[in-house]
Amino acid sequence: MTKSELIAQLAAANPHLRQPDVELIVGTIFNEITAALARGDRVELRGFGAFSAKAREARTGRNPRTGEAVEVSSKAVPYFKPGKELRERVNGGPLQAPKRAPRAAPAP
Fold first, then answer.
1. In the chain, what is the straight-line distance between the N-terminal and C-terminal CA atoms, in Å?
2. Its GO biological process terms (predicted)?
3. What does the pLDDT look like over 30-86, one tens digit per residue?
4. What is the pLDDT of residues 7-27, one digit of tens each?
5. In 1-108, where does DSSP find H-type helix?
6. Widest CA span in the chain
């Protein structure tokens, strides 16, 4: 699914919102996630997953065309870890209600 397809589906599912408003909402969400990752923050969306930036160390790589050794500098790469509900849904497992702590028995 592309960003424009996502916007079209959201606009169709929410007829009370105009398409330009849905575009603004989706764009704002993506921009905020991107800005948080650029600051080094973690973004967690409960039931969906967590976005974070992982550091990669500097290393010596190879130019595939010439085979020559090339120094690759350290960098941060975006990383997504899916949440339990998303994994279950993708794998076709049943979605279950979140588990709650058992209630205490009433005093006699």
1. 58
2. DNA recombination; regulation of DNA-templated transcription; regulation of translation
3. 999 999 999 999 999 999 999 999 999 999 999 999 999 999 999 999 999 999 999
4. 999 999 999 999 999 999 999
5. 3-13, 19-39, 84-90
6. 82
In a domain, 95, yes or no: no
Which residues lie below 8 Å from residue 10, measured CB to CB, with a gap of 6+? 17, 22, 25, 26
Residue 19 in tokens: 């398409």
- Type of residue at 27: G
CATH of the domain at 26: 4.10.520.10
The answer to whether residues 24 and 34 touch, using CB atoms and an 8 Å cutoff, is no
The CA-atom distances, in angstroms, between 102 and each of 99, 105, 108 are 9, 9, 18
**Cα gap 23→21, rounded to integer Å:** 5
Determine the structural domain holding residue 42 and report its residue range: 3-90
Please report whether residue 56 resides in a domain.
yes
